[in-house]
Every structure is written in structure tokens, then in C-alpha cells.
Amino acid sequence: MKKGPIIAIEADTSDSEDRPVSAEGLEKALQGRRIRRLRQQLGVSQSEFAERYGIPVANLRQYEIGRTMPPPAVRAYLAVIEQEPETTAAAYRKSQAA
């Protein structure tokens, strides 16, 4: 008899975008949830977040669903966004104008 994956975290029923997480995908999923919650706290869509902070929307989608783990530099950038979202957005806009 074939067994399904071991579920480490059940889906958050209050979040329509959330899914259950297998033990293997736990670390990626936790990072994805953190990113999605940050984006939701800022009240922006994936496309708006991507444009505001210069993260490709395709990458953001992959991170949020836990398919891929952001590289260390992106995780550090997300931590800065979490601490200072407006200042970070302004700095990104300024860097694009140069």
C-alpha cells in the first residue's frame, strides 16, 4: 500500500492561498508563508510587491508556494523590507532612476 506524504503543517483555514505542507517541504513552506504574510500586511498583490521591490513576480510566486527557497541575499532583502517597507521601496525606486 502506497502512503502519502507526512503532513507537517495543516493548511491555515483562514488563508485561502495556504496549502498543507509535507515534512520535506517545511523550510521552504515556512519561508513562503512569511513572504505571503508580509505581502498581505502591506496590502499588495504579488505583481505590486514584485514591482515595488524589484523581485521578479515569477520568483515571488515560487517562493510563496514553497517550491523554491529564496537565496540568502533575497532572504536578507526580505528582512529589510519587513523592517522598513517604505524606506526600502523608496531606495529601490531611486536605484532604478540612476
UniProtKB/TrEMBL annotation:
Q: PROSITE patterns annotated for this entry? A: HTH_CROC1
Q: Which InterPro entries match?
A: Cro/C1-type_HTH, Lambda_DNA-bd_dom_sf
* Superkingdom of source: Bacteria
For this protein, the record's Pfam families field holds: HTH_31
Record SMART domains: HTH_XRE
Q: Which SUPFAM superfamilies match?
A: lambda repressor-like DNA-binding domains
Name the UniProt record assigns to this protein: Helix-turn-helix domain-containing protein
The HTH cro/C1-type domain sits at: 35-70
**Sequence segments annotated as region (Disordered):** 1-21
- Annotated source species: Rhodocista pekingensis
* Segments traversing the membrane: none
